[in-house]
Structures are given as structure tokens and as C-alpha cells.
Design goal:
219 residues, alpha/beta, 8 strands, 20% strand, binds D-xylitol-5-phosphate, binds zinc ion
């Protein structure tokens, strides 16, 4: 698929979130990444379905909801009803991944499976035919602004190879420490969707940072 950048609002200023969203979508962003954290699965707390609903009310772009929560089964429908388009669930957060992926699809969303940096891509073998996308964490989940973990590049390459046989329509998203300096290299490794928090919303001019990253990826 054509590459897409998913600005993560985790690094945005929530006191002026409407302006932030307007500026970044005007710059060409056609999706937003929303990080849901519960203080249990990850050591940080962000927001729940209400935030997704409020975002839905101010924009039509794809809402990519990354669930970093324990017992995700309990909340899938709530996020879908709130306006999520894509929902990704952690391999590490459930004993019944196949059931959970189907639950996301039945709720009308594209279903993504996320793996943490220490989880090998090989564990995805049996779920790949059922998933719409895989989200590879390139930092330990919980916080924005962390350093990119270099071994993630090899994981993307391996996953790209695996998907050729098991699910050619699968797309690969990567999340954590991504910016204009490594995005092009990651595109070459097989990444389709680039989550960017600090490198976009942490910049003085997020719209300019977004455009720069886009041109790097397409260069
Ligand atoms: C981290 C989140 C990321 C975060 C990425 O747990 O899943 O989506 O926003 O932020 P950056 O791009 O700053 O690493
Ligand atoms: Zn995320």
C-alpha cells in the first residue's frame, strides 16, 4: 500500500487539541493514532472511548486506536461505537488472540495485532491470515519521545516476508521513535504506516514536520 503517516496525539497539547488536529489534517494527515493506556498493561494512563468520540466529532480522518490495556475484550465495542476505524490489540494482553481479532472485525473495524519489542514476529504465524495489519512496537509501549530500538528494522523485514505467503494484503505499521531521519529506511524495510508522536506534535511547527517526513518517505 501507499505509505501513510499516523500522527500520535499523545504528544499533542490537549488544551488545544482541536487546533492541533485541524493543522495536521490541513497539512495532509489522513489518519490519527490514538494511544489508550490503562496504567496496568503499561505504566501510564491516557484516555478512553470518550476521547475517541470527541475526536470523531471534529474530524473525518481514519482513527487508529492502539489499545494498551489489560482485558481488551471488555472494551472493543465501546471503542468501535465511539468512532474508531482501526483497533489494534496486543498479542501480550490476551490468551485468545484469534477470538479478539474476530471481535474487532465483527465490531466493524480493521483489526491490528501489536507486538512488543521483545516479542518475536514468529509468534504471529497463525494469526496473520486473520489480521488486517500488524503494529510493530519499536519502543516499549507507555510513553512518547523514546529512542527507536534498532532491531525493529529486521522484524519489519521478516514480517514482510512472512506476509507474502500468509496474507499478501496485510499492512505493517510501526510505532515508536520514528521521524524524518529513519522513516525512509523503514519504508525500504517494508513499513506501510508510520506512527509519529514526538517528531510531529513535539516539533515547533507540526505541519512542517509532517510534510518533511512525508517527503522523506516518498523520496
Ligand atoms: C507509545 C505509543 C506511541 C507513541 C509514539 O507507547 O504507543 O504511539 O505516541 O510516540 P513517539 O513517536 O514520540 O515515539
Ligand atoms: Zn501507539
Amino acid at each position: 500500500m501507499d505509505p501513510r503517516i499516523a500522527p500520535s496525539i499523545l504528544s499533542a497539547d490537549f488544551s488545544k487539541i482541536k487546533d492541533e488536529v485541524k493543522a495536521i489534517t490541513a497539512a495532509g494527515a489522513d489518519m490519527l493514532h490514538l494511544d489508550v493506556m490503562d496504567g496496568h498493561f503499561v505504566p501510564n494512563i491516557t484516555f478512553g472511548p470518550k476521547m475517541v468520540k470527541d475526536m470523531r466529532s471534529i474530524t473525518d480522518v481514519t482513527l487508529d486506536v492502539h489499545l494498551m490495556i489489560s482485558e481488551p475484550e471488555k472494551y472493543v465495542e465501546k471503542f468501535a461505537k465511539s468512532g474508531a476505524d482501526w483497533i489494534s490489540v496486543h498479542y501480550e494482553a490476551t490468551d485468545h488472540l484469534n477470538r479478539l481479532v474476530n471481535q474487532v472485525k465483527d465490531a466493524g473495524c480493521k483489526a491490528g495485532v501489536v507486538i512488543n519489542p521483545a516479542t518475536p514476529v514468529e509468534v504471529l504465524n497463525e494469526i496473520l491470515p486473520f489480521a488486517d495489519f500488524v503494529l510493530l512496537m519499536s519502543v516499549n509501549p507507555g510513553f512518547g519521545g523514546q529512542k527507536f530500538i534498532g532491531t525493529s528494522v529486521q522484524k519489519a523485514k521478516k514480517l514482510k516476508q512472512m506476509s507474502k505467503d500468509l496474507n499478501p494484503a496485510l499492512f505493517i505499521e510501526m510505532d515508536g521513535g520514528i521521524g524524518p531521519d529513519n522513516a525512509k529506511m523503514l519504508r525500504t524495510a517494508g513499513v506501510d504506516v508510520f506512527v509519529a508522536g514526538n517528531s510531529v506534535f513535539g516539533a515547533n511547527d507540526p505541519a512542517a514536520a509532517f510534510r518533511k517526513m512525508k517527503s522523506e518517505i516518498n523520496s
